[in-house]
Specification:
about 160 residues; alpha+beta; 4-stranded antiparallel beta sheet
Length: about 160
């Protein structure tokens, strides 16, 4: 999956993606740490249900990939293009997981965008955590709550 991720398009070959992979017991440790970050940052807004969701999503995963963007030090490429390149790398992860029957989803809840998470992942001020790709073999086939739109609903064709 990571090999396919590196083939994503990237302007000027900055290759801004950076992944931190948690497997085995590290998934549960990450989930605990992430939930504790949420608990300590939320103060009076703390919700036990959210805490448990953060923790359990990690514990139930076979692997978790932290999706990070390492900003080009010269900032020669617009930030949006760097984020887009990372997003395309994640698409390659997702397509590969699907091809092998592995369930995966990109989550960005909890403390994803926080300074605490940046520090936890060893990111600089210019870098970004864009979410977490949770992986595992699903116990059941999940029905989509909402079907995908047909191509005609989001495409406009122009012909001479």
């Amino acid at each position: 999956m990571l090999e396919n991720a590196r083939w994503a398009p990237t302007h000027k070959m900055t290759q801004p993606w950076a992944f931190e992979v948690f497997m085995g017991d590290a998934c549960a440790s990450f989930g605990h740490d992430h939930a504790e970050m949420y608990k300590s940052a939320s103060g009076d807004a703390f919700m036990e249900k959210k805490y448990e969701k953060i923790r359990l999503n990690a514990e139930r995963s076979s692997a978790i990939i932290a999706i990070c963007m390492k900003r080009d030090p010269e900032e020669q490429i617009p930030l949006q293009e760097e984020i887009s390149a990372v997003s395309m790398a994640v698409q390659n992860l997702h397509l590969t997981a699907t091809a092998y029957g592995i369930g995966g989803y990109w989550g960005s809840g909890g403390m994803t965008y926080s300074a605490e998470m940046k520090s936890y992942l060893g990111l600089t001020e210019a870098d970004r955590c864009l979410g977490f790709f949770y992986l595992g073999y699903p116990d059941i086939e999940w029905p989509r709550k909402k079907p995908r739109h047909e191509v005609r609903m989001f495409t406009k064709w122009h012909e001479e």
